[in-house]
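Box 3.1 A note on notation
Throughout this textbook, protein chains are presented in two layers. The first layer is the amino acid sequence; the second is a token string describing backbone geometry. Keep the layers aligned when reading.
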Amino acid sequence: MKATRILALVLAVMMLVGIVPAMADEEPIKISVAGYMFGPVDNEKDVITPAVEKMLKEKHGINVDIEVVYIEQANYAEILGTRLAGGTAPDVFLAQSDTKLNEYYDQGVIKTWDEEFFKTNAPDVYKFITEGAAYGDLINDVDAWKKASMKDGKMVVIPSFKPDGSMPYKTMIYRGDWIENLGYTEETLPKTVDEFVTLMTRFTKEDPDQDGQDNTYGCSLTGMKALFGAYGLGIGFSGSASYWVNKDGTIVNADVTDEAKEVLKILAQMYADGVIDPEFVAGSESVEGSYWAISHGMVTGLYGASANASIDHYRLKGITGPEDQGGRCATEYWAVNGEDSTFVYAPWPAGPNGDYGWEVGTPVAVSESALYNANMSDEKLAVIFQILNAFATDDELYLLAFAGIEGEHYTRNEDGTITRTAGMANEDLNNVGVWGCRSLYGNDRCFSQLGYDLAFYKDVSIANRLNWFKKDQYNSYIQDAVTEVLPSNELFGEMNTVRDEAWTSMIRGEVSVDEAWDAYVADWMVAGGEILTQEANDWYNAR
């Protein structure tokens, strides 16, 4: 009787802090998770999720039934919103963006918890983060991580925390045949705005595909965005919010700077000259149903420049090993244009002050981070955090979920890296359950040295990118001057609409940039710009 009372007391205490795993002889706790997926999981072929459940139970005493829910990325927000409204949303789902996180929080559909609760149930993950990640090189970003994880004194998300958060994401890519036909070499590729505009004009006017027809353009939207980078601006035109800029201690949004006005004049002239694809306003260069990073117009020869993808998307064959067939966009390019076709990694054009490039992120981000359904119990959330901790401390478990079955889905190299089995695309790996638990072990990696080594420090494709970035103007450095979500961030929705409509009209020559600029800025300020600019400066001054 005494032993029974002691056990009951122990269990009661454990319940208070939320650290009771599902016991082996009890019904498993059901957890549904909808992470970042390239394709659906086939329950008949899924060999990974059951193996993960088995390992969690036998090695960690965590008895769970994991349901991997596929939500197509292109329509993720819409589908999830419907399920949240109908009470059928999964337990774990993606934040997608700061804006969506704020929206979900305001709607009360996501779970909140105390920092101590997280520290208790995921102690190794907490230690990993607060000590600056795998090698301590992110120690100066710990405070930013904590701030990003909280709202109103409660944690609401486990943000990503990784060194490659600050890596340039996009790369300027030219069609190799057009470059060759026009007589360019790597040494003579454009490095200034004027040289870039000249090349775009030649792409349009000089029959670069040599088919005898007037059917080519210089670039589409992402090529245009490189010009904003040449003026030191991170621009979200036709897609998202733009970066904030520090001008001598005053924070100004890139959308209303004199530099943005100058770029719009350049683009308006390019459009008038027929250099820009007239369908640029559509924004996306991919087509429905295709991989998002594939620039359909460049692959099919409509235009010659795109910055829609990264070097790794256009990775050449053999970079990661003898079985490497190339990056996702590269294989599509070869499939359409022939195995001998080429593309060129190009430097970013620099502006009058030597600025160039594309936006880079910070080590802390929430876009691919997991959120937790407000309907779940504290006990279930505790188990989810225990699973997070298990992945961070058990390399065997993590490799199973991240890479699959050794010898079947990957091979382990002598240096500790892995090589994916040739012929298995991302969709194929998802099909058998690889990455299905992605939002349970972190983001795109778990919080462990192995996770970070495989995804960054010892990743051959990362080394390939970094080697290219050592070349002059191939890297990128434009960072947002405001590194936190502002209180009125949701106002960006209306502000971006004002920007996109006004800028599109200016570029198309429907109104003069000089004549329409002041009215546009006034409308942008009324739509929320004045409020957010004040909040941005208040944040900056209070640091």
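The first strand starts at residue 29 and ends at 34. Confidence is low (pLDDT under 50) at residues 1-13, 15-20.
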